[in-house]
Write a structure and sequence with these properties.
CATH architecture: 3-Layer(aba) Sandwich
CATH class: Alpha Beta
Number of strands: 7
Mean pLDDT: 97
Strand content: 35-45%
Largest sheet: 7 strands, mixed
CATH topology: Aminopeptidase
Shape: globular
Strand order of the largest sheet: 1-2-3-4-5-7-6
Radius of gyration: 15 Å
Amino acid sequence: MLTISQLTKDDIIIVHQLAKSIWPDAFKDILEPAQIEYMLDWMYDVNTLTEQVQTGHLYYMITLDGVPKGFVGLEPNFPDVGTLRMHKLYVESNTHGKGLGKALLEKTIEIGKELDVATINLNVNRFNAAVDFYKSQGFQIVKEENIDIGRGYLMEDYVMVKEI
């Protein structure tokens, strides 16, 4: 049985643990191991995640038969009012094709409607297979971005948008 629940600052460590488990596999063919580790330390530090929750970011975890399998991280009104930014959506690779990512995306759309926003946007690595998933769910590529994240690393992303 699939269950989606909102995480508080007290249980945000689950996102940290899931990211540490999911990212090396998700990005092994796209990024160098050192860049994966650098980005995990930068974006998934427990203190960073806790601060995000305290400042309005929303995190939801999906479980399958009671076991955490993935998460989504959202920021209302970013970069503009009326937009819901999906910063993170990841599920364990052994659950791909079982509807978990789609369930998290449907939850995101539900939250967007509750918040009365017009669009959902996200960045996704241009070489990530998830680009096709997002396209299949109605997202459109609106531009490319190259983001210098330090230490000589670059995020080569598409910005994608879905009207809701």
